[in-house]
């Protein structure tokens, strides 16, 4: 059976300070609120056909609610659900109609670390447009990185059950492997798994139009007083630019651009030694990667592990 997952759709967060979080994403970060309900906000990127790329939900506890991926057809959704069921993976919901913006057909399940994952097909395409030159707002969702206490096991789970392929690995002589970049299409990574002390969100990344727009957006965030964790710089693995900031609840969010697209037939994964400065930042413009920078991305212990979100 070929790969059933096609791409990353959206990442959903729950937070106590809903209004502050909403103001950040719909304001300085540059997303557009397209739908809202009591304690729920759906935020889209102007350049993306996805109905929304971030959902915010008001909750007493901060958590990662959901990571959602797309599939080509309802039949693929059913096939994946059957495959996971047979493998003993816990399904949170059976395949059926979705009542989120754009509808569609999908289901939810827990991954190895207890995160809730959704896979859906037939979601209506949102009217979107080309992002203009110098327009420094996200074009689309780029990728999500998840912290796992068992890096190798989580990588193997995504390879076995969801057909993700390994693109590259970050490692160092004294720490061993710390990050696996995983793909579900020719984009270098839609998902990466980072070695963390606990299960949590590492960061959410947003694709900008180009280098100029990426830098303008980074500058706007710096001027807004948002905390710049790391950047601006350019990674070696994936060849993409990076500026990492903290949202009001301490989740790390990234502006990026020019993430590599691979020829999947010929690509061979490399192991990059991140103790070499040019691996973490080819340009040498970012602040040095150190334990303080790394710690910001560990995030808080996720309270949503093996607990499905209420909506």
Automatic annotation (TrEMBL):
<dbReference type="InterPro" id="IPR051785">
    <property type="entry name" value="MMCE/EMCE_epimerase"/>
</dbReference>
<feature type="domain" description="VOC">
    <location>
        <begin position="140"/>
        <end position="258"/>
    </location>
</feature>
<dbReference type="InterPro" id="IPR037523">
    <property type="entry name" value="VOC_core"/>
</dbReference>
<feature type="domain" description="VOC">
    <location>
        <begin position="7"/>
        <end position="122"/>
    </location>
</feature>
<dbReference type="InterPro" id="IPR029068">
    <property type="entry name" value="Glyas_Bleomycin-R_OHBP_Dase"/>
</dbReference>
<dbReference type="InterPro" id="IPR004360">
    <property type="entry name" value="Glyas_Fos-R_dOase_dom"/>
</dbReference>
<protein>
    <submittedName>
        <fullName>VOC family protein</fullName>
    </submittedName>
</protein>
<dbReference type="Pfam" id="PF00903">
    <property type="entry name" value="Glyoxalase"/>
</dbReference>
<keyword id="KW-0479">Metal-binding</keyword>
């Amino acid at each position: 059976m070929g790969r059933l997952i096609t791409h990353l759709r959206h990442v959903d967060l729950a937070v106590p300070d809903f209004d502050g979080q909403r103001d950040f994403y719909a304001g300085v970060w540059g997303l557009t609120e397209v739908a809202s309900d009591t304690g729920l906000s759906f935020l889209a990127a102007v350049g993306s056909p996805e109905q929304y790329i971030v959902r915010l939900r008001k909750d007493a506890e901060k958590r990662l609610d959901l990571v959602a991926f797309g599939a080509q057809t309802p039949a693929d959704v059913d096939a994946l659900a059957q495959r996971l069921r047979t493998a003993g993976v816990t399904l949170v919901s059976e395949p059926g109609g979705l009542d989120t913006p754009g509808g569609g057909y999908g289901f939810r399940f827990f991954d190895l670390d207890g995160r809730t994952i959704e896979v859906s097909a037939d979601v209506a395409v949102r009217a979107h447009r080309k992002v203009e030159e110098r327009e420094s707002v996200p074009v689309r969702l780029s990728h999500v990185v998840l912290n796992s206490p068992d890096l190798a096991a989580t990588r193997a789970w995504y390879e076995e059950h969801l057909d993700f392929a390994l693109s590259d690995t970050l490692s160092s002589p004294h720490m061993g492997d710390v990050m696996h970049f995983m793909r579900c299409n020719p984009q270098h990574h839609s998902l990466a798994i980072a070695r963390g002390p606990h299960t949590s969100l590492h960061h959410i990344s947003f694709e900008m139009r180009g280098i100029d727009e990426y830098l303008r957006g980074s500058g706007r965030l710096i001027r807004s007083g948002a905390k710049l964790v790391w950047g601006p710089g350019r990674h070696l693995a994936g060849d993409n630019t990076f500026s990492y900031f903290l949202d009001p609840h301490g989740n790390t969010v990234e502006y990026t651009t020019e993430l590599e697209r691979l020829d999947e037939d010929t690509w061979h994964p490399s192991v990059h030694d991140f103790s070499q400065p040019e691996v973490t930042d080819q340009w040498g413009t970012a602040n040095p990667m150190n334990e303080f920078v790394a710690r910001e991305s560990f995030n808080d212990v996720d309270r949503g592990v093996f607990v499905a979100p209420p909506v």
